[in-house]
Amino acid sequence: MEEADPDGWFIAGRRPTDDGLSAFWLDIKITEKSNVKSETTSFVAAAFEGMKQILGQIHGESYVFVHAVDGDAYGFGGRTQNGRWAEAHPG
């Protein structure tokens, strides 16, 4: 998590705090084609609502940004996501 100074956050030239609002940018990575559009749509809506519960009133131009990344382009523990899938689904 990286917090931003509310005095340095502007939307259309105004600070959300000037209007009694909070704002956020949530940046998520998933494996490409692991979710259908309706699942991603539901996740974005639920994340936005969850942030409202945490932050209170939020500016409508707060963002949930979901990167659908090629499974060969990232992973963890020294193995790519596609490599993990291939190991779990031999043949």
Flag low-confidence runs: none
How do the SSEs run, as a string of H and E?
EHEEEH
**Major beta sheet summary:** 2 strands, parallel
Coarse morphology:
elongated
* Mean pLDDT metric: 93
DSSP, total strands: 4
Please give the order of strands in the largest beta sheet.
1-2
Q: What is the radius of gyration? A: 17 Å
Number of helices: 2
Strand content: 15-25%
Describe this structure in words.
With 91 residues, the protein is an alpha+beta fold. It contains two helices and four strands, in the order βαβββα. It has helices at 37-55, 81-88, and strands spanning 25-31, 63-69, 75-76, 79-80. The protein has a two-stranded parallel ribbon with strand order 1-2. It has a two-stranded antiparallel ribbon with strand order 3-4. Helix 1 (37-55) links the parallel strand 1 (25-31) and strand 2. The termini are far apart.
